[in-house]
Amino acid sequence: MNRPTHIPGKPFIGKTKDILADPILFSAKLALENLPLVSVKLPGRTLYVTADADIVAEILVKEADKFSRGANYKRLALVGGNGLITSEGEFWKRQRRLAQPGFHKERINGFLKTFIQLAEDMDARWDKMKGQNIVMSDEMSRFTLKAVGITLFSNDIEAEHPDFPQYIRALLRFINLRHYQMIRFPIHWPTPSNKRFRKQLDYLNSIIYNQIDRRESSGKEYHDLLDMFLSQIDEETGEQMSREHIRNEFFTMVAAGYETSSVALTWTWYMLNQEPKYAAKVYEEMDRVIGSGPVLPEHLPQLVYTKMFVQETMRVYPPVFAIPRSIKDDMELGGFQLKGKQPILITLYGLNRNPAYWNNPEEFNPENFSEEAKQKRHKHAYLPFGSGQRMCIGSEFAMYEIMALLAVLARKYRPKPRPGYVPKMLASIATNVTEGMPMILETE
Asked: Which of 53, 81, 277, 374 is surrounded by the fewest CB atoms within 10 Å?
C-alpha cells in the first residue's frame, strides 16, 4: 500500500518552525506541491495535509465516521465548552437537533428586515465619519455582533458590551497559539498568559450567564433561539438543555456567527477597492435591482453578481483557512495507508488555489461562481462552510447578513486602504487581518 510523500524536517522539531512562521501559507504550499496528500513531521506525531477535493470528500462525507474532531477542537473547548463546534457523537446530534429550528429558511427570511435595519443604522453612523480613518474589521464586527445578538437572542450585545468582540478575539487567538506551541503549560498553571485567559473567559461567561438569567426571570417569550434552548425538549431523549450547555451554545453561536461574517465583509470591502472592473459590475447590479430607494428583503436574492463577488472574496481570503480532523485508527485514504491517532488538515486556502479546480487560481474573478462554472467544478473544491453532516448550521444566515450590509452601504461608500498599507491574513480560529484593515471612509 502506498504512503503519501513525507517531509521529514529537522530532528525533533520537524517542520514546526515553518508552520509557526505562517500556518496559512505553509500548509497550503505544502499540500499543493505534494498533491494529493502529504505528511510532515512534527514533534511526537505526523501531520497529514491535503488540498485534494476527492480526499476532502472522503474525510468530511464518505468516511466521516473514521475521523474525530481532534486535539484542536479539544483546546477550543476551553472557550466554547461542549458546544456544536466542539462536541461529537450522540451529544452533538442532540444539540444539532435542538438548534436546527432556529435556522430554518422561514426564520432566516424573517431576519432580513433586521439585517437591513442594522445596515441602515451603520449608514447613519458612517455618514458622520466621512473622510475619517476607520478600522474596518472593528466596524464589521460591530454590525455582525448586533445582527447575531438581536436576531438569535433578542439582545443588542454590542451596545451593552462594546468590548465583547475584542475579548472573543483574544481568547480565540490564545487557543490558536496553543495549537502550535511545542510546550503547552497546563491551563490551570498561573502563567501570565493563562491568568489573562482565565480573566477574559470569566468576563465573557459573566455576560452570557447574565443574558440567560435575565431571560429566565423575565417571564416573557421572544420566540428566538435562546427561548428554544431554554424550553425545547429533545424528542428522542426527553431531556432539556442544562444551563451550562445553553451557555456553550450561546457562546458558540455568537463567536462563530459574528466573527467569520465580519472577516468576510472586511476582505470584501478591500476587494471592492482593489478590483474596480468587477466592483463596477456590483454597483451596476445594485443600481438596477434596488435603484435609489430603500433596500427591501426581496432585493437580496436578486443580487446575483454581488453574491458571486462575495463568494470569490471568500475563496481568495477564506474566513476559516483550514479544517482539522484526527484519524481514529489506521486506514486507507485516497489509495494511501495512514496511521491512526494522527492529525490531518484540510487546507481550505490551498483547496481554493488548486489549479485542478480553478483557472488562474491566483487571479480574482467572480465568474468562478457563475452557475456554469459551479456545475463543472468538483463540489468539494469550495467549502467556506464545511461539508457533510457538520456543515455550518448558519451558512445561509451568514450570506444574507453579508448581502444586506453591502446592499445598503456599498451603493454609497467607497472605503480605501490607508496609503502604504498591505494587508496580510492572520491565522486564528477565524482568520483575521493585520491591523484590522485600516481604511479611509470615502463616498462615491
From this structure: 277
